[in-house]
Amino acid sequence: MNLRHSRVTSNLFKHFIFLTFILTGTAAFADSILTGRVSDSTSGRALESAEVRISELSRRVTTDSSGSYRFVTVPAGDYTLEVSYVGYETQSVQVSTPDTGTVSEDVALMSMATAEEVLVVGFRASQLSSVQDKNASDLIKDSITANDAGKLPDANAAEALQRVPGVSITIDQGEGRYVTIRGIDPGLNNVTIDGQSIGAPEAGDRRIALDTIPADVLSKLEVIKTVTPDLDGNAIGGTVNLVTPSAFDDEDGYMFNATADIGYYDLNDKNPYGISAGWARVFGDQDQFGILLTASFSTREYRTENVQTDIWEEEDDYYIPGELNMRDYTLERDRTGLVANLEWRPSDNTRFYWRNLYTKFEDLEDRIEHIYDYREGDLENQTPTSGTFTEGEGSRAFKHRLEKQAIAQTTLGGEFIFGANTLELSGTFGKTEQDTPFDIEWQFEVSDSLPMTYDTSDFFPRVSAPDDFVDPEFFEFDKVDRNNQLVEEDLQNWQADLRHDLDFGANPAYLKGGIKFTSREKTSDVSGPTYDGFEHDLFLSQFSQPGRANFYSSVRPGFYDFGPQVDYDAAEAFFAANTGDFEISDDDTNEAEFAEDYRVDEDVSAAYIMAGVDVGNWTLTGGVRVEDTSSNYSAYEVVF
Q1: What is the Cα–Cα distance from 336 to 276, expressed in whole angstroms?
Q2: What is the pTM of this model?
Q3: Among 362, 352, 339, which Cα is nearest to 409's?
Q4: Whole-Å CA distances, 85 to 130, 245, 616
Q5: How far is C-alpha 217 from the geometric centre of its chain's CA atoms?
Q6: For the chain, which terminus, N or C, has the lower number of CB atoms within 10 Å?
Q7: Mean pLDDT score of the chain, rounded to an integer?
Q8: Distance (Å, whole) CA 618 – CA 623
């Protein structure tokens, strides 16, 4: 850290200490504390985000993940405690509080569901939980609970979020990957785990691929669409918060579950499967300790067939598609997730936690690609749906790649309640990595141009060419890329937040302030040569094999002729036996190796102060956040 940034961090710390004295100086320790737990009267399930009100004081709080609520600085007297939850009957309870001390009042709510609805109460309860969480929040927020994700075939966190209003996802090979909030680019979203920022494994930007994280190791997924001063400023689109479970979430203090699933792919006759298990226990002479362990593993080996065109552009009064790509994929994806959370709650006013998450996603891909680059030369015999270009080009390629993404994060923190004040301290260390140990692609191009005819009369456009385009002898060696890449990011978060609850006239209100320091170090290293020549003639016919005869037949039988393809194993064996005869392209190799090599060091110091007040059915929130960002970048400029 540079000297200037040390001064910034020091000043933020001094301001936080000053704010602490201001807020704690207003604390009233003479009044009592009212606590309790809200649960389902039938199942005993904790009701998170239940709204608890003291009618006479117009004060409101919501319950946490274990169903617990807490009012501080309650004057002595008799009060009506009103508890409400979507889908449950509102219940009123009379409570009395002394001058000092703690009063506990548990409330069990009765569901409005009829007897006929009991069979679906688990799924129904999870839906009600999401609605209640939205209604009770001071933010514009939507959420989905673990029960939702478990009841639906969600392989990862992105797919679980696709049912949230205002959220769409980017699909990659049939699986959700990136999350878009209100149409804004995923790179402008902030993704957190238990409220703590995580690193981005990919090299090119700040997008975080949520297909890395299994849905079944999470207890809740939240989408926050407003940016308040206590949230990071890099959430232009919104914040996606992934919440891990706690041992104290279960009303019995003990939990064990296990699931298994298996499927079938008719394209390759393979069976994807997944298994997961979770165990949690509260222990100690006063049940003050809690431990939770969850694990998940799934594997999918499948095929996909893809036909796509480039951008349609106007050509002599008619719009026609760009080059036509036919791709035949074989993929194997393994997804692993582990969560280990420890908690210590020595008293109702103090808790310590240690949260740990590790995920790994491996993607082994074989991609066979055939391209009709037909829009070359003169255009002849054009009709509204067809035409012939005189000098079409084309290529046939085979790509073999393994990509491994991993996210590891550990957070140590504590929450301390004293009087009307709540102080939370936390420190987070994280590491993300994208390792591509091999990315090999063979490419062959037509040895001479060919007339090619496009046809857009069907919903699916196609291109036809003379028989030479399906003759492996007509394709000559173009190049072979043999690359590997390692992207790593190390992350640290240090955070302190202090909240003081008070009365603003007859209305409940709060003051809140805090500081945060985030440090990132990210590197990318690419290596591997590109060969673009061979000492002798080299044609696809020397290592080719027939392509899939029934390509895309489930959509358009006999519509696309896939033709011959690269025999990858034969090509690799030929390369191993004749490596010395291949010629390295210095320009392409230097561009591949240095254009994506970089190092980034970024430090962000932030401080905020905010206030909120409930006035009837309105909640007013305001404040200010200041962030100071210091960055150092180093990269290569490739000049030819």
Answers
A1: 10
A2: 0.85
A3: 339
A4: 11, 21, 18
A5: 13
A6: C
A7: 87
A8: 17
Residue-wise DSSP of 454-516? EE-SSSS-EEE--GGGG-GGGEEEEEEEEEEEEEEEEEEEEEEEEEEEEEETTEEEEEEEEEE
Q: What six digits make up the tokens of 585?
A: 């392209």
* Cα 327 versus chain centre, distance: 27
Tokens standing for residue 580: 């010395």
| Rg (alpha carbons) of the chain, rounded to whole number | 30
What integer pLDDT is reported at residue 470 of this predicted model? 94
- The structure tokens listed for 516 are 């945060």
Backbone angles phi, psi at 574, to 5 degrees: -65, -40
d(CA 461, CA 468): 21
Digit-coded pLDDT (tens) for 513-570 = 999 999 999 999 999 999 999 999 999 999 999 999 889 988 888 899 999 999 999 9
Please state, for a pLDDT cut of 70, what percent of the chain lies above it: 91
Beta bridge partners of 632: 601
In which element (H, E) is residue 565 found? strand 564-566
Average pLDDT over residues 446-475: 95
Query: Can you give the pLDDT at residue 67?
Result: 86
Query: Within a 13 Å sphere around the CA of 160, how many CA atoms are in the beta-carbon half?
Result: 32
- Give the bridge partners for 602, in sequence order: 520, 631
385: enclosing H helix or E strand: none
Widest Cα–Cα separation across the chain: 97
The answer, yes or no, to whether residue 415 has pLDDT greater than 60, is yes
